[in-house]
């Protein structure tokens, strides 16, 4: 382990209110490359971290528009252009009859957009992560809360960052290696 | 800290007054670590005897289904009771019944999420699994009932040498798109909800196989708030997309009937009536599954009596909507002035299949009214029996709609009689084998409660609640 680079400082907290308070302080101290890790999504943490609204909606929107358009075009082209069959005197193409499948495709592509957009924005799936090698960090899915300030942060300093986290009430601060 | 000045120094964060505090959703103030331990213990402990006691008969029935499917494919649809004039028999009854059951899962995971019903978190995972497995059972029937199943791919717009395309003016094609979208989106929603919970299992895993499998499927989840932020938005979007989806699927299933000219089918009330019935039967099935499981898996503190009570109320509400639809259907049949329409309904009530109508009307409309009484909503054995009655009633609803409408249409010369064959019966029992086999595998290997979602609704998890560590003076 001694040869590897440090990844960041990992500070552990016991209560959601403590980690939320700490996150606000880290935000106000001007750190940029840092994160809060929690067992479940904490309402209000985005504001506490100063995060902007998630962009997943755009992926879903583009997916939905693609789905609706491709459904309509598919039905129009197959039934009214490529191979016309007159059935019961119905029009070759009617937006009403074509609506149900296009509506379903809107939802289908929109849902894929939401899930794949989420994974893309989160850069998931990934098979390894410096934090996942850390034994204590396993509690993040159990009942502990963590703040990680990465060494990549321009404001990172081994001493001052550790002091800040100590001041914020973390009882256990460790250096995580790559 | 920007708001700190606005909060007076003596401000105290207090628990809500007792009279305003809602009944808790997790009993005994269990902390969030306990929730992980409890739910994971269903997977980590020794396989209980009752699991095998249910798995073995399920597997036998599943095998019987496989045999019946092979028999049907090799001999033809004639092995079923379907014949002129009832060309849709148990196959379509069972298709509609299973797909209806699926609807509760999406209702719980999507609509109750949009309505901010926090109690959904304890039951959504199992109900979504139920949805997926029910749709898998449903899907067998339309695939088989075409007879020559090797032409099933004609249902999809795949270019072929005959240059023939699916005919999109038929509601049967709409159904293909509705059901396959429903299945796919349900799986996506279910899987996305699972990612953080599989990470819980990964971090607890002791064996190599578990570490690898849970690690692989949890996608490297670290609980990062930057990830949660996108995740929550995607979850909201999927809920928002699944809501119109669930309403459309059974509407489109109902259009398979309503778009035809047949008396008894050709009605505009079908879409909302089918959706209400689907949710009604789905909640019946959720109760059938969860009442025994909460005891067997010791989940009473997570699936509490309050959850059961609320589900009974949903059954009551949707059962009443179904009852309204039945009565409105009768009224419209009379009011339409069409002699065929009037006869179709008179024949349902007093014709040779009158017992089907009784088995539909009593269990779906009259008996669920007992849930008005608190006594009935707080006795588990009673609710369990009720849930079975609801499922039987809803099966008979589809029987009545399909068989009684088809067996006597416009011309008496076309009239006939329908009864199922042993293949119909064994195949239907076999779908239960498939359903329970999949469900038992699910509950043994995948967290059957959405651990992270239940954690998030406990007071211990709320940074604004004293149990979550909120202190005097607030924290903003």
The count of β-strands of chain A is 4
N-to-C SSE series of chain B? HHHHHHHHHHHHHHH
Helix content of chain B: 55-70%
Q: Tell me the total number of β-strands of chain B.
A: 0
Task: Provide keyphrases for this structure.
heterodimer, A: alpha+beta, four-stranded antiparallel sheet, 5 helices, elongated, B: 476 residues, mainly alpha, Formate dehydrogenase/DMSO reductase fold, 0% strand
Give structural notes:
The complex is a heterodimer of chains A (178) and B (476). Chain A has 178 residues and is an alpha+beta fold. Helices cover 46% and strands 13% of the residues of chain A. Chain A folds into two domains: 6-53 and 128-177, no CATH class; 56-121, no CATH class. Chain A has helices at residues 16-28, 45-49, 56-82, 95-121, 158-167; strands at residues 6-13, 34-37, 145-150, 172-177. Chain A has a four-stranded antiparallel β-sheet. The termini of chain A are close together. Chain B has 476 residues and is mainly alpha-helical. Chain B has one domain (28-151, 167-462): Up-down Bundle (Formate dehydrogenase/DMSO reductase fold). The longest helix of chain B is centred in the middle third of the chain and has 34 residues, at 171-204. Chain B is globular. The relative contact order of chain B is 0.18. The mean pLDDT of chain B is 90. The chains are: A alpha+beta (178), B mainly alpha (476).
